[in-house]
Write a structure and sequence with these properties.
Strand order of the largest sheet: 1-2
Number of helices: 14
Mean pLDDT: 83
Structural class: mainly alpha
Number of domains: 1
Low-confidence stretches: 339-344
Largest sheet: 2 strands, antiparallel
Number of strands: 2
Distance between the termini: 46 Å
Length: 344
């Protein structure tokens, strides 16, 4: 890990500590200590298992896209990919470092750079579609409840939804209206050139053309292998379900009763949408505020609410950072995808 990345990890940890101290400023620490002693550790272990399970399922998705006619990537080498992704998503604005970090992890396992880029692009496309499917479902199930109780947060949720829709529409345009999309993008870069200068405009246009060409080539591969895409899509849906269920078991570990799994998952989806709008790595501050606001209806005790927020962040954010650091340090000794021998 570079010195810059180490500094970023340290800063995010300090921000997390500062947020927890600030949120705990009015708490009775004896009551907080009592709440910790009364935790139901069994449910907390289930929450941990669901979080780890989501990364395991994502590993299977990586293996599906890597696997060729006779090639496969060993599980432990593939498992590094989502963990390294978690680390760099956590320390970069808008999770922008996750994709490049995954590319490095795959190349360290011996996957050729071009193929690794293709795998990650296909994984990204499937993930975005499944996120949108989840969000549309939750909009129908629980948005009315959120909008009535928390109007300000509802606005952020709508913005998050719009951003994801724009991303999906852009992907579909490239997949099915390739030439039209290139003309549209070129028109946009020419307009931007008025403000940024011709040289920068030409650089942007060349970069965007390359990305569009690459994505279009991969979209053809996706459309030509529907079985693999469907399998990866279902696994990604399962991955997201495991992740969205984590707060439910955190609440059970606090002894909170009367919680509904579907409602909690809906609220977690909403939080993720809100966090995606914050440029601060990990949505620090916004994530904690959203959790407190949305889950205050379930948790009456301030000490339980703050502890629940801390446990949720430890499992869904800081645990990924820690395991990502370990995964980054454990570079595979034997590189290269394993070739399966033909039988007979």
């Amino acid at each position: 890990m570079s010195r810059r990345n180490k500094i970023a990890v340290f800063i995010m940890l300090m921000i997390g500590v500062a947020i927890f101290i600030y949120e705990s400023r009015d708490l009775n620490f004896k009551q907080l200590q009592q709440t910790i002693l009364q935790l139901h550790w069994g449910w907390l272990l289930v929450a941990l298992a669901f979080m780890l399970g989501s990364w395991v399922v994502e590993t299977f998705v990586v293996q599906i896209f890597i696997k060729g006619e006779h090639d496969r990537l060993p599980f432990w080498q593939a498992f590094r990919v989502p963990l390294v992704e978690q680390l760099f998503n956590a320390i970069t604005p808008f999770s922008s470092g996750g994709q490049p970090a995954q590319l490095v992890a795959l190349m360290q396992s011996g996957i050729e750079g071009g193929r690794a880029s293709s795998v990650l692009l296909m994984k990204f496309i499937v993930y975005q579609f499944m996120v949108l499917v989840n969000f549309i479902l939750t909009i129908f199930i629980g948005f009315d409840q959120v909008s009535k109780r928390f109007g300000a947060l509802a606005i952020f949720i709508v913005f998050g939804f719009i951003i994801h829709v724009v991303v999906i529409v852009g992907l579909l345009l490239v997949m099915y209206y390739y030439k039209f999309t290139k003309r549209l993008v070129n028109l946009g870069t020419r307009f931007a050139g008025i403000f940024v200068g011709k040289k920068r405009q030409q650089t942007w246009q060349a970069q965007l053309d390359e990305k569009i060409d690459t994505f279009y080539a991969e979209s053809l591969a996706l459309k030509g292998d529907k079985r693999r895409v469907i399998k990866a899509g279902l696994l990604t849906l399962g991955q997201l379900m495991l992740y969205y269920a984590v707060p439910f078991f955190v609440l059970l570990s606090l002894g909170v009763t009367g919680v509904n799994l579907v409602e909690v998952m809906v609220l977690h989806v909403m939080i993720v949408m809100i966090v995606s709008l914050f440029p601060i790595p990990g949505g620090a501050g916004g994530a904690e505020y959203s959790f407190k606001t949305l889950f205050a209806t379930y948790v009456a005790s301030p000490s339980k609410l703050i502890l629940g927020m801390l446990l949720w962040r430890l499992l869904t954010y800081y645990l990924g950072m820690l395991l990502g650091i370990v995964a980054l340090a454990l570079v595979p000794k034997k590189t290269g995808a394993v070739t399966e021998k033909k039988v007979g």
